[in-house]
Design brief:
The protein has 609 residues and is an alpha+beta fold. Helices cover 33% and strands 20% of the residues. The protein is built from 19 helices and 22 strands.
Length: 609
């Protein structure tokens, strides 16, 4: 180049007005220089100029050809790409049989993996503008097979065999490469999981696996293609024909279950004031302030002549919680006792021994003597407390009265039994006890309409039992009395968490389906309440009930006895039939009593008046 420039400068000094180089280049191959020019320009300069022109023409021609070919090839490539035939049978390259599958990152981005004879490069991320969710619906597919892990798919995608790809669909520099296609598995039809159903939106659904906060997709960390089965697997197992209604989570919090209730009640609060608050709500308030459960049995409320709906008022300042509880209970002739973490409310002086005479002249008839009635009492009311069974209770009878010595809590049971027997026979009560208001009808009769109504509730996230019971109380409109000491005996506490789901089942069925799997049970209690207790108590603890019925024969009574033995587990259980008043008197566990009631109802043998 330097030599050409020197020659050019020398020529310029001898020739004042040379023609442009472009003209020389264009005419050089065709014309010869005139003699005058040959004499004026040296021969070596002319030879150098011709070579320069020749190289420039060749260089620009090659550059133009390469650029034009590249553009044309790109246009033809983009417009004439052959679609991948997804319906064609897979073609497996023998060179890929021993190639281990690459790891699959479980992120919403799209990955494409190309396997060649060279070492496999790391997966590349497809830009968002061609991600599957943004590509418009076209008959063509992307030139490079892709795998998309969609955020809406909870199941792990399966791996399909490599498919044949048309040569036109490959990049020019990778024409001989074979492609391993990892496609998302066909989306299976959704399977019903009762834990995902939340018709009433009672609890925000959170599955056991973590979810993406934006897409709600299940995040399965470190998923490996080699471990993925050929068929898509759901996150949860397919529900069986009878789907489970309950899953138990955390059993208890030791910091709460081992805490001393007596110590917690010494905590002071600045002020507590409320007027006309239902007793059950007032006890719940104390439980929340102390952090310890408060229990009251239906029989204790009956002994006080009240229900859990009794209104109470309290106004105290700078007082401890035990004083607040005393202010609630004292006007009702009730008290509390503590046992470890438990606070139990009971009738004052419940264990005090008393002797009482009961008039029975209106109950005695030709078909029912005083001795027979006394025998019923020993069978039906606290059977283990009488002298005949090894207890301390005594009973003397004459023609028109019964003289009974028993603790006060048993005396109340005797009084209520006699008064309910009078009500069943349409006789006026003999005492000032408000029996008609409290026990004018059997508990199951009072609650039958509500317990037969449909229930639908879902707690997909493990929820404390106390919150579930509170929800049931609100939905049913029935007080829920919880025997927390009985629940603690089977390691069930207010903080025990449970996930449960019921869809359109009668409430009495729903309660069984949720409580039975976790070792609990329930019963309809006198006064229009439901008591939740342990399954052991529900199957063994005796409760007295009087059911007005149509006339029954011996065959029906025998069937009821068999049914009671099938559902109950207490050998002291008894069934007595009063032929004068057509009253079926039963002392049965809660499970057996419900079975008897349903059988009488189905056979139209109940006489509810």
């Amino acid at each position: 180049t330097r030599q050409i420039e020197e020659v050019t400068q020398a020529a310029a000094a001898d020739e004042p007005t040379p023609e442009p180089q472009s003209a020389q280049v264009e005419t050089a191959p065709v014309e010869t220089a005139p003699p005058e020019a040959a004499e004026a320009v040296p021969a070596d300069f002319l030879q150098a100029s011709a070579e320069v022109a020749k190289y420039k023409i060749i260089t620009w021609s090659l550059a133009s050809f390469v650029i034009g070919a590249t553009l044309v090839g790109a246009i033809v490539y983009r417009s004439n790409r052959a679609p991948v035939d997804l319906s064609a049978p897979p073609v497996v390259d023998s060179t890929l049989e021993d190639t281990p599958p690459p790891e699959l990152e479980t992120t919403p981005s799209v990955k494409s993996v190309v396997a060649t004879s060279e070492p496999v490069p790391p997966p590349t991320v497809v830009p968002p503008e061609i991600a599957p969710d943004n590509v418009p619906a076209e008959p063509e597919v992307a030139s490079t097979p892709e795998v998309a892990i969609r955020s809406a798919e909870p199941a792990v995608p399966s791996v399909t065999e490599p498919k044949s790809v048309e040569p036109d669909a490959l990049e020019p520099e990778a024409e001989q490469a074979k492609t391993l296609t990892i496609e998302p598995a066909p989306r299976a039809a959704p399977k019903f999981d009762p834990f995902d159903l939340d018709l009433e939106r009672l609890s925000l659904a959170k599955l056991d696996l973590p979810r993406d906060p934006e897409t709600q997709a299940v995040d399965v960390p470190n998923a490996d293609i080699a471990d993925v089965p050929d068929e898509p697997e759901p996150v949860f197992e397919v529900a069986p024909a009878e789907p489970p209604s309950v899953r138990i989570g955390q059993v208890s919090d030791p910091a709460v279950s081992n805490r001393s209730a007596e110590k917690q009640l010494t905590l002071k609060i600045p002020a507590v004031q409320f007027d006309d608050l239902p007793l059950l709500d007032a006890l719940d308030l104390v439980a929340q302030l102390s952090g310890q459960p408060v229990s009251v049995a239906p029989e204790q409320l009956l002994m006080a002549g009240i229900t859990s709906r009794k209104k109470v008022s309290v106004r105290v300042n700078d007082a401890s919680l035990d004083r607040v509880l005393e202010e609630i209970l004292s006007p009702l002739r009730m008290e509390y006792v503590t046992s470890g973490p438990q606070i139990v409310v009971q009738r004052e002086e419940a264990a005090k021994l008393r002797e009482i005479d009961y008039p029975i002249d209106d109950l005695i008839s030709d078909d029912l003597s005083a001795e027979q009635l006394a025998g019923w009492l020993e069978q039906l009311v606290a059977p283990t407390t009488w002298q005949a069974a090894g207890g301390n209770g005594s009973l003397d009878s004459d023609a028109d009265r019964l003289r009974i010595t028993q603790p006060q809590h048993v005396q109340y049971q005797i009084l209520i039994f006699l008064e309910r027997l009078r009500l069943a026979k349409n006789l006026p009560p003999k005492s000032r006890y408000p029996v008609k208001r409290l026990v004018g009808a059997p508990a199951l009769v009072q609650l039958d309409q509500k317990l037969s109504s449909p229930a639908t509730f879902t707690f997909t996230q493990p929820t404390p039992l106390i919150e579930i019971f509170t929800h049931w109380q609100t939905e049913l409109g029935v007080p829920m009395l919880v025997d927390w000491p009985a629940l603690a005996a089977v390691e069930r506490h207010p903080t025990t968490t449970v996930a449960c789901a019921i869809v359109d089942e009668p409430w009495h069925v729903a309660l069984d389906k949720v409580l039975t799997p976790i070792g609990l049970g329930w019963r309809a209690a006198t006064g229009g309440a439901i008591e939740i207790t342990s399954a052991t108590n529900a199957n063994h603890q005796l409760h007295l009930e009087l059911l007005p019925v149509a006339p029954l024969n011996e065959a029906v009574l025998a069937e009821l006895q068999v049914l009671a033995e099938q559902y109950g587990a207490n050998p002291a259980a008894t069934i007595v039939y009063d032929t004068v008043g057509n009253v079926l008197i039963t002392s049965q566990p809660a499970t057996a009593l419900r079975a008897i009631y349903r059988e009488l109802q189905n056979e139209n043998l109940l006489d509810v008046r």
